[in-house]
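Regression check, flavin mononucleotide case 216:
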Amino acid sequence: MQFTNEFLQNLRQDYKSATLDEADVDNNPITQFKKWFDQAVDAQVFEPNAMTLATADKAGRPDARIVLLKGVDENGFRFFTNYLSAKGKELKRNPYAALVFFWSDLERQIRIEGIVEKLDKETSEEYFNTRPIASQIGAVASPQSQIIPNRTFLEEKFEELKTKSDGKSIAKPAHWGGYIVKPTRIEFWQGRRSRLHDRINFELIKGNWVKTRLAP
Ligand SMILES: Cc1cc2nc3c(=O)[nH]c(=O)nc-3n(C[C@H](O)[C@H](O)[C@H](O)COP(=O)(O)O)c2cc1C
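Current build output:
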């Protein structure tokens, strides 16, 4: 196949596998998130915990990339990264983020907005210590988001650290750890026929989740 814009323009799906009624959506959006997540796992969605993380710099310019969700509870959604990365610097200046999950097999999207905080050192260490040694070394070896001369630079750093660690797990570096996105808005989107999709939206108002329906 050869790329054409005409092909792109004609690329469309009509969604018809499910519906989303207010009454079927739990009044607690975190409970609802877990319910949909379980269904994504059962449906064998590829990397169901992959989510787009959008941040913005001080000037409000947006930036987005995929990260992996590594924990959810009533307090929020957790992921791990390098605090000195582009996203780390942006979150330091502007601690607000949006998360988006798209589970195409289920014709579902979840959007989350919230305030971001660093996880405490102990929680980050606990998770770091569960990672395979190669991932631990990779986290130390990679100055995430910085310009590097070539791939060899990275591979040599990795090999050097691997030899030093001698097969033993290594300590979490100070610049690596977790964040929690404390949600203030969570929206559940279910694709429907003729673009008349269902959108059930939760907003945190004075500590209570308020559920409404949004036009698609
Ligand atoms: C499926 C997938 C999962 C990823 N998971 C993570 C992750 O959990 N943490 C992370 O720092 N980067 C993860 N990345 C890499 C990021 O998308 C990104 O390239 C990196 O974090 C640098 O982003 P930044 O320069 O905006 O900080 C993942 C990428 C993909 C495609």
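Comparison notes: The chain has a mean pLDDT of 97. The helical segments are 5-9, 29-42, 86-93, 121-128, 133-141, 151-165. No diff flagged against the previous build.
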